[in-house]
Specification:
By secondary structure, the chain is mainly β. Helices cover about 10% and strands about 35% of the residues. The protein is built from 23 helices and 116 strands. The strands form 31 sheets. Strands 42, 44, 45, 46, 47, 48, 49, 50, 52 and 54 form a ten-stranded mixed β-sheet that branches. A six-stranded mixed β-sheet has the order 3-5-20-19-13-15. It has a six-stranded mixed β-sheet with strand order 9-8-7-10-11-12, with helices on both faces. A hairpin with a 2-residue loop joins strand 31 (about 560) and strand 32 (about 565). It is globular and about 115 Å long.
Length: about 1900
């Protein structure tokens, strides 16, 4: 009962909504609210209707609930399904054809019901085979065709080998004979290549035949053909080969194999719509072969789509084998994933291995089987299970030809589809003939499946005007259906208002009508407010108030009906918590609780015993030290009456009895064979353990050998003599040792000659191998015992090493990847300090721990600074190690050193050297122990002191997420540098097995510390969700040094996690220290452990399945420190008041001393006493008593020597500044004499808490001095503080409202009085909560064809959190926007994939598309759009062959909705294409490629973004911010363009957004920023570079390795000649020496820089060199921000986080033409200028050289700055640069290019048709983007623009919080007529 109570208490926190959801899912019958009997039965399986006239409960409910309400079993109406086998013929294995059994069956299923059908299939060893070879006949395949012709005889042999009944055929294909796929010149149409045939699409050359000679001869006649573009028209050929059954010759009962051979990629649907002739009709999927076997409709209809091919090949049972060369292998491997069964083989360049590929593919196909349910009605769902009962993924089964294969089909009828009952669907959607068969078979089992929608006979026999209904209604199925004007259950109440009497609605024991939970209607009828929650005639029952178990209502195993739990079958108990079955109590032998307990409520209650028991009362030897060690004492005491249990009472407690035997069984025939030495007679005894043969026996069978192994008796008389001789020899050797060092070797040799010491001392590992499960690991180390035998006098030091992943072969892919030796990695280092461990060291924040941590860091840093590139120590902690000999009470220090990977040998040598010396600088360590580790190897040493027999080796396990499922480590004892021991068992293998799980349970930390005064230790248990769902885990505490019921109260139980739940807390009660222990002063550290075990529902245990809880007897110490780091006073102040504050443990008195720091001109000191409850005291200094203080000066005060229950905090010093000041008024002086100066101190203890997405609650303690009010200043993180909003309040709290959701805010508070504002508090950060996201950005459609579209959308402007998913719904609608068909819903779980390709839409049908986003709070609103694809223009030619978007088939049914194809590779457009090629590396910036076509005018967009997601190019996981780069090219319609200039618009965007700190998943690269725009396909504007000179490196990537270390990477620039190397220049932004790094290897594109200063901005420049010289530089400004030591601003704090930031450039440049030779330039001030702005420097130069560079100095720092530039030249492009000058130096530049063009355009440059835009997006609330663009569009057609040229400038800002909308347009006319210059500014809400 105690266990039940515990589980109930753990689960009481579950949300009510979860309970309601569980209830609704469990009882769909009641939830259906069925009005009639038929509707009730159609609600789903198990629903029943009660027609009893006297029945008073819900008439429609689950059958068991109906009976529980009192309905008689005979009267209840239910419906039953049926299943019948119509034809079942046994499989005949002698028939050489494919067979299935049964062959015909019918079934009708109720909604929600499922049936299991067992099936058998058979395929002969050599069944009939149809092999059709489809070959690419483009010119590049000429040598492949020649090889195939020469292989005629080998091909014949292969076909005969594969089958005894075969046919073989041949077809060929090239591509559509139309431009641009084919050269349409007459000569090329006749013969595209020398000695070739005319081009064609597809031709069936040889029909399937069994005449191999005919096949070979016909094949010899074939010649190659040719076409233009790289992708071929193979899809046309595959479709025709599939649907033209008679033309090809496919046979009915044979296996159909189609071998598709090519070396090129493929065209697919919509590529045909882009040819010059415009083939728009979709492929009709019909056969179009003429008499010669040629495809006749190639130029009249489009290519087929991928889902179409999948469907048609499956329908005709054709298995594709793609035999392709390396050029296109990756494309076809991706294509393979679409087919249920297909193979891809890699051809040689000349196809010389095509026969081997065909044979291997055929064998692979025969070895596996895929089962499909074809023509399945929409209302059904089919799954296929293997013989083991597991659902086969994608229907794959292990299958052996010639044997009968068995599987089970699970067919389920849906209950609801699209929120509508399945019985309301169309007849063809809920009934049909399915064909269940293997993909390779023609034979199938035909299943006539129907959803049973029953009707009730009682509805046909209604009793009109029934007496039961008082003649006012008809009695239908026991229920009155009242006539108009009559109400109530029995139609006995008139509907008139006079019938309303609320007294009739008051139930027994209630005073309110309807129990206050409903409305009282006519005739005493209660209508409950929430029928899902309240029920009963008076709404007196609450469906959520039944007993709960584990937090679940009725344990989720029953229904709450009328105030009690009605349990499901197999469950009982007040809360349905007890299973009726005893299955959970069965032990490993099938018994109940092993006969040692009883099964109570599904759990075993075991009898008390001295051994650890499993949950089924079996001895849990594995939980102890192994089965041998666990049984040793019992076997010894029973056999020999010796050992620890030799007392009879103790021995009788053993759980087994031994059997003495003369001979033991062999080791391989028993469970374990054990041998131990009896300490009392020095003899060894042996015994075996095995499971009892008698199943009724519950104990282990232990057989002990009667005879011990003892030393020979004949040598016993020699012992005294030997002892005498040994003593004599020892004296002689000692004398020799004193005079001759070389005697040591002689001494050891002599000892080895003695019979008793012939081996001397031996050391070695105890075990050979450890097998560990990663889910059960309790630590990232394993304590591996090493034993020592022989004489134990003397000391031995053993060195050891461990190597990770020794199971990997040298050719393993991971083994081939060599690590970068320059990479900075972490080195965990462990040393044993010459200091005993105390309880304070176990508390990281204790004073002792802090002091020792500082000493360790100072001394180790001093030693390891000799290692090049080494950084300071981090994460230092202290522990002890058990089984460490006589020194296990000494402190072991663990710390981490960051250094280059290549430094490992040097670090090991330096560590060992200092350990041997016994000190690291001034830090004393114990010799003989150390550990140095990397991420893949480790080395160390252990020490055996005199008399020590066993010591543990603390072996790191290197557990990583990327580990193999089964990995091995090898631990080796290498040598003994000190001592005479020899190494025995040298090696030990450690194998770690990793299981895959749906959830991972773990403690957050491996150790916790709680004070006894806390009373309760709340221990959190986290859950990492991999696949969401309901899951459980068990927990249990156990004693270490703390004892149950003395120090704490043990707990055990189960935790149940609901879907989406990630953390729960287990409370453990801590007990007060007993009076006896308190008097004795028990100082032992009290600890207990808590273990996790038995994870259920596919979960596993994670990194910390065990945690150690330390009970601190002493309370947490008080922390005292100065309130502020700086204090300011004037010489006229009568007193200087310096506040000191106290935090933690404020209930006890505490003291601290203060004094001026040494070296001051005067000495002041004193003592502060804090009484209980006091949190602040003041140091009051009277300047009149110290004349030196009355002069302006600065001095420091420090706190020291706190009392034993206190410690000094981080602000242990404060700076006091005294400045010249005027005399104060008498009033102010009087106030100052009362204890404070006129200016109020800062409010104390400010706390901010987010109370909602748009609100923050802020409260604080008022300062002394009677403030009149408070001013709260708050602003968005990153904004200047001077722009903050100020809120005036009168109480010490404030509510900040109308904030932005999920946004970081900073706040300060100050008090004010009549003297003005007081001192402000330190900055208070807080982040508002998440809110649902806003609607996505506008929808864009890439109209590929009238039936195929690609819809894309932008991320919501207001994400209000992290977007996790998108949902797309598309619905066919009519002209009135009403649905005319079912809506289809697609969920995209990857938020980066904001695009969906939808195929097979209805032609000329209008669709409505809706998209919404989801974050951690929920779904946001929809963004919708309506479009008819037939009315839109089609896309340009050649997008990537497999887009990086999900693909859905709107026509093919639900089974195709899950086809998702993603790719990071794209295919280059064919040569001569009219559109730019989408290629290069820029699309791979974040592993995302995004191409979007907008239908108005056509546009191409490439987006590259990272938003708190990993950057794949840098192998890092930066979660602290976001960085987005977007490149857009818009194509404008107009007159024909030059091929080299597209006349488009090129835009480069940079978006940087700050989010809350998220932490880092990679410890090496902690932060990264990418700078620079992406390479485009437009000609480079900077055409002045000489040919062969490298271009600018395309981007810079900055990756922070530490507070002072940075990795700079770049992408190789474009260059016509080979790159010879690079040069990296960097210097502080505010001036300083320029550092240069030359990179001579052109393959290297990164450098690591170690010597940077924290919080300093640096300017980096990278350029490339070729034979022609150096190219232009790519610049970037970067800062590594980190916390620094207040005493040394150039020294970062160890272990502090660090991030990257960059100062911003001036705002976007806006040009306004004033005349043909002058313009006005304006810009906005930088958002983050990195200092106060002093002015700007503007440079102007001609873009292509010529003329002088002009510079302008502009002063001021206004929001917008303007400059007029004159003396410019028409039609010449100019480059302008604007750079801000700040107090910190010069910031980054902003560039802009502009040309003032003449009216006639006579001298237009080559950039006439190009428009350039630069767009920079700064961070504003809710992802505000600020866009500034300069665009020029020149269209040569005079019918469009008669004025000449138009130049437009736009500036756009958008904000989720703006309330006004402004549109302003200013038109300025220049002196030149006809030229229009327009400037538009838009502010868009």
């Amino acid at each position: 009962m105690g266990r039940w109570t515990l589980r109930l208490s753990v689960g009481l926190g579950l949300l009510l909504i979860l309970v309601s959801y569980t209830r609704a899912e469990a009882n769909y019958c009641y939830a259906s609210r069925s009005k009639t009997c038929s509707e009730c039965l159609q609600a789903g399986k198990g629903c029943a209707y009660c027609p009893d006239e006297t029945f008073n409960g819900p008439r429609c409910d689950l059958h068991e609930n109906i009976l529980a309400h009192g309905c008689s079993a005979a009267a209840a109406i239910t419906a039953k399904s049926r299943m019948r086998i119509e034809r079942e013929e046994q499989i005949n294995v002698r028939m050489a054809q494919s067979q299935v059994s049964p062959q015909q069956m019918s079934m009708s299923l109720l909604p929600g019901e499922e049936k299991m059908v067992d099936m058998e299939v058979f395929a002969p060893t050599k069944g009939p085979l149809d092999l059709y070879i489809l070959m690419d006949f483009s010119n590049s395949m000429e040598d492949d065709l020649d090889n195939l012709k020469r292989m005629g005889q080998e091909l014949a042999s292969l076909v005969k080998k594969l089958s005894d009944d075969y046919t073989i055929g041949f077809g060929k294909f090239v591509d559509k004979v139309i431009e641009p796929q084919t050269d349409m010149r007459p000569a090329k149409l006749d013969q595209p290549w020398p000695n070739s045939d005319p081009p064609f699409s597809f031709e069936n050359v040889i029909k399937l035949t069994n005449d191999l000679n005919f096949f070979t001869s016909e094949l010899q006649k074939e010649r190659i053909s040719g076409n233009l573009d790289a992708p071929e028209g193979g899809f046309d050929a595959i479709l025709q080969a599939a649907v033209c059954t008679d033309n090809i010759g496919w046979r009915e009962q044979s296996t159909h194999l189609l071998v598709f051979s090519t070396e090129s990629a493929f065209h697919y649907e919509a590529d045909g719509a882009n040819v010059l002739s415009g083939i728009l009709p979709r492929n009709d999927e019909k056969c179009h072969l003429d008499g010669e076997g040629k495809y006749t409709e190639a130029t009249k209809q489009d290519y087929p789509s991928i889902p179409t091919l999948v469907r048609l090949l499956g329908k005709h049972n054709i298995i594709p084998v793609f035999a392709v060369t390396n050029h296109s292998f990756t494309y076809y491997k991706k294509l393979q994933t679409y087919f249920p069964i297909a193979e891809v083989g890699l051809l040689q360049e000349d196809s010389s291995n095509i026969l081997q590929v065909m044979e291997m593919a055929f064998e692979s196909i025969r070895s596996k089987m895929s089962i499909r349910a074809e023509d399945r009605p929409k209302a059904f769902e089919a799954e296929f299970l293997s013989t083991s009962g597991k659902v086969a993924k994608h229907g794959d089964f292990a299958f052996r030809p010639g044997a009968i294969g068995k599987f089970t089909m699970r067919l389920k009828a849906h209950r609801m589809l699209d929120d509508s009952p399945v019985c309301k669907m169309d007849a063809d959607e809920k009934s049909g003939l399915m064909r269940v068969k293997p993909t390779t078979f023609n034979a199938a089992m035909n299943v006539q499946a129907t959803v049973l929608c029953p009707t009730c006979d009682c509805e046909k026999t209604a009793i009109a005007n029934a007496p039961r209904c008082h003649g006012n209604g008809d009695l239908v199925c026991g229920k009155c259906q009242c006539h108009d004007g009559w109400l109530s259950t029995f139609c006995n109440c008139s509907a008139s208002a006079s019938a309303l009497d609320t007294r009739l609605c008051i139930g027994p024991g209630s005073t309110e009508p309807c129990s206050g939970r409903g409305d009282c209607r006519e005739c005493g009828r209660c209508v409950c407010y929430n029928p899902d929650q309240f029920e009963g005639p008076y709404c007196q029952y609450d469906r959520t108030q039944c007993p709960r178990f584990g937090g679940f209502l009725c344990n989720d195993r029953g229904s709450c009906i009328m105030g009690r739990c009605v349990c499901s079958d197999g469950w009982e108990g007040n809360a349905c918590e007890c299973p009726k079955s005893n299955q959970t109590c069965l032990d490993s032998k099938g018994g109940v609780c092993n006969g040692r307990g009883k099964c109570v409520c599904g759990l075993c209650e075991c009898q008390s015993s001295g051994l650890e028991m499993t949950s089924t009362c079996e001895p849990n030897f594995q939980a102890q030290l192994g089965v041998c060690e666990a049984t040793r004492t019992c076997a010894q005491c029973q056999a020999w009456k010796t050992g620890e249990r030799k007392d009879k009472k103790e021995c009788d407690k053993c759980p087994f009895r031994i059997i003495m035997v003369d001979e033991l069984k062999e080791a391989d025939k028993v469970m374990e064979k054990c041998s131990y030495r009896d300490e009392e007679d020095d003899c060894t005894y042996h015994y075996t353990l095995e499971t009892p043969k008698n199943p009724d026996s519950k104990d282990l069978e232990v057989q002990v050998l009667k005879k011990k192994d003892c030393p020979a008796a004949s040598l016993l008389w020699l012992l005294p003599l030997l002892l005498f001789l040994l003593l004599l020899l020892a004296l002689l050797l000692l004398c020799c040792w004193k005079y001759c060092k070389c005697c040591k070797t002689c001494w050891q040799s002599c000892l080895a000659l003695l019979p008793c010491c012939n081996k001397g001392r031996m050391v070695g590992f105890k075990e050979d191998e450890y097998l560990l499960r990663q889910s059960l690991l309790t630590s990232d180390h394993l304590d591996t015992p090493m034993a020592r035998t022989g004489p134990l006098k003397g000391t031995d030091v053993v060195r050891w090493k461990v190597t990770d992943n020794v199971h990997r072969s040298p050719n393993h892919p991971q083994a081939l990847v060599k690590p970068n030796p320059k990479e900075t990695i972490q080195y965990p280092i462990s040393l044993r300090l010459n200091r005993r461990f105390t309880e304070n060291l176990s508390r990281p924040d204790s004073r002792d721990a802090e002091q020792l941590r500082k000493d360790v860091a100072d001394n180790l840093n001093d030693v390891y600074k000799q290692i090049p590139g080494a950084q300071k120590m981090q994460k230092t902690s202290f522990r002890t190690q058990r089984n460490a000999g006589k020194r296990q009470d000494y402190t072991i220090m663990d710390t981490i050193l960051s250094a280059p990977r290549s430094s490992y040998p040097d670090i090991v040598k330096m560590t060992e050297k200092n350990v041997q010396s016994g000190r690291f600088s001034d830090l004393k360590v114990l010799p003989g122990y150390y550990t140095v580790a990397t991420d893949r190897e480790a080395a160390g040493a252990i020490e055996f002191q005199e008399g020590v027999e066993s010591v543990d080796v603390h072996v790191p396990l290197f557990v990583k997420d990327e580990d193999d499922d089964k990995k091995q480590l090898l631990v080796e004892a290498t040598d003994v540098p000190l001592g005479i021991a020899q190494i025995g068992k040298r090696l030990v293998n450690i194998t770690i097995i990793k299981e895959h799980a749906s959830s991972v349970f773990s403690f957050l930390q491996p150790a916790y510390t709680y004070s006894r005064q806390d009373g309760v230790a709340n221990i959190p248990i986290s859950r990492e969700i991999i696949e969401d769902g309901r899951t459980q885990v068990s927990y249990r505490t156990r004693d270490l040094t703390a004892k149950d019921k003395k120090d704490y109260v043990t707990v055990d139980g189960d935790l149940t996690y609901a879907p989406g739940e990630t953390q729960k807390t287990v409370p453990v009660r801590l007990l007060e220290l007993g009076e006896k222990d308190a008097l004795l002063g028990d100082k032992q550290v009290k600890q207990f452990a808590m273990d996790l075990s038995n994870p259920r529902q596919g979960a596993k245990l994670g990194r910390y399945p065990r945690t150690t809880v330390t009970i601190a007897d002493l309370p947490e110490p008080s922390v005292m420190m100065f309130k502020k780091g700086t204090q300011s006073f004037t010489t006229s102040d009568p007193n200087y008041t310096i506040p000191v504050v106290r935090t933690r443990n404020q209930d006890s008195p505490a003291t601290v001393k203060w004094r001026t720091k040494k070296g001051q001109r005067f000495d002041l000191s004193g003592l502060l006493k804090f009484n209980p409850g006091e949190t602040e005291k003041n140091i009051v200094i009277d300047p009149r008593s110290h004349p030196a203080l009355s002069q302006p000066d600065s001095f420091q005060l420090e706190l020291l020597e706190p009392s034993s229950n206190a410690t000094v905090g981080e602000r242990k010093t404060t700076v006091v500044n005294v400045v010249e000041g005027a005399p104060r008024s008498p009033e102010m002086a009087q106030m100052q004499q009362k204890g404070f100066s006129g200016r109020l101190h800062a409010p104390g203890n400010p706390k901010a808490k987010a109370t909602g997405p748009k609100s923050i609650h802020l409260n604080w303690d008022p300062p002394a001095g009677n403030p009149m009010g408070y001013k709260v200043k708050y602003w968005i993180y990153g904004d200047p503080e001077k722009d903050a909003q100020v809120l005036d309040v009168k109480t010490p709290q404030a509510e900040l409202t109308n904030l932005y959701p999920y946004c970081d805010y900073e706040m300060r508070v100050c008090a004010y009085n009549s003297f003005g504002d007081g001192t402000e508090t330190d900055m208070i950060p807080c982040q508002t909560l998440e809110d649902v996201p806003g609607e996505p950005g506008r929808l864009a459609f890439n109209v590929i064809s009238p039936t195929v579209t690609q819809v894309s959308w932008a991320e919501p402007a207001e994400t209000n959190g992290n977007i996790t998913a998108y949902e797309v719904i598309y619905t066919p609608i009519d002209d009135d926007l009403k649905p005319v068909g079912a809506a289809k819903k697609v969920k995209i779980d990857n938020p980066k994939k904001r695009m969906l390709l939808i195929e097979n839409l209805v032609n000329a049908q209008t669709y409505q598309y809706k998209v919404r986003a989801k974050n951690g709070v929920g779904w946001g609103p929809y963004r919708d759009a309506t479009i008819n694809l037939a009315s839109q223009p089609a896309r340009p030619l050649s997008i990537p062959i497999i887009p990086d978007v999900p693909i859905v088939d709107a026509e093919a049914g639900d089974e195709y909705d899950s086809y998702l194809m993603y790719s990071n590779e794209v295919l280059k457009s064919p040569a001569g294409s009219k559109t730019p090629s989408v290629s290069g590396d820029d699309y791979m910036m974040n592993g995302k490629w995004d191409q979007n076509f907008l239908f108005p005018g056509g546009s191409v967009t490439r987006n590259l973004s990272t938003s708190s997601t990993p950057m794949s190019t840098m192998n890092s996981h930066y979660m602290g911010g976001s960085f987005t780069t977007e490149t857009t090219s818009n194509y404008m319609p107009g007159s024909p363009r030059r091929p080299d200039m597209m006349g488009g618009m090129h835009t480069t965007d940079v978006i940087m957004r700050k989010r809350s700190e998220r932490g880092y998943a990679d410890e090496h690269i902690r932060d990264s920023i990418v700078m620079g725009d992406m390479s485009s396909n437009f000609p480079d504007l900077d055409a002045r570079l000489s040919p062969g000179v490298p271009d600018t490196p395309s981007r810079l990537v900055f990756s922070a390795l530490g507070p002072t270390a940075l990795k700079v990477s770049w992408q190789a620039p474009l260059c016509q000649k080979d790159i010879l190397g690079y040069c990296v220049l960097y210097q502080p932004l505010n001036g300083g020496d320029v550092n240069r790094i030359n990179v001579t290897n052109p393959a290297d594109n990164s450098v690591i820089i170690q010597d940077l200063l924290p919080n300093h901005s640096y300017l980096f420049k990278v350029k490339a060199q070729s034979q022609e010289g150096w190219g232009p530089e790519r610049e970037g400004v970067i800062t590594i921000e980190s916390a620094v030591d207040p005493k040394s601003p150039y020294s970062p704090m160890p272990g502090s986080p660090f991030t990257l930031s960059t100062p911003s450039a001036p705002g976007p440049l806006v040009f306004t033409a004033l005349s043909p030779d002058s313009l006005q330039l304006s810009w906005e001030k930088p958002r983050k200028p990195n200092g106060d702005i002093l002015g700007y420097v503007v440079t102007c130069e001609q873009l292509h050289g010529g003329g002088d560079t002009r510079s302008f100095q502009v002063s001021g720092d206004s929001a917008e700055t303007r400059l007029t530039v004159s003396n410019l030249t028409e039609n010449v492009p100019y480059k302008f640069k604007v750079q801000a000058q700040t107090t910190q130096g010069y910031g980054p530049e902003r560039e802009g290019i502009i040309t003032i063009e003449s009216q006639d355009g006579g001298a237009l440059s080559q950039y006439n048709n190009q428009s350039m835009t630069r767009r920079d997006v700064f961070n504003m609330p809710s992802d505000i983007s600020t866009t500034s663009s300069v665009s020029r569009t020149m269209i040569n057609d005079p019918s469009y623009f008669s004025d000449g040229m138009m130049m437009t400038t736009q500036h756009t800002e958008s904000s989720g919080m703006m309330t006004r909308q402004i549109t302003k347009e200013v038109v300025q006319r220049s002196v030149m007529g006809g030229t229009t210059v327009t400037k538009n500014m838009f502010y868009e809400s």
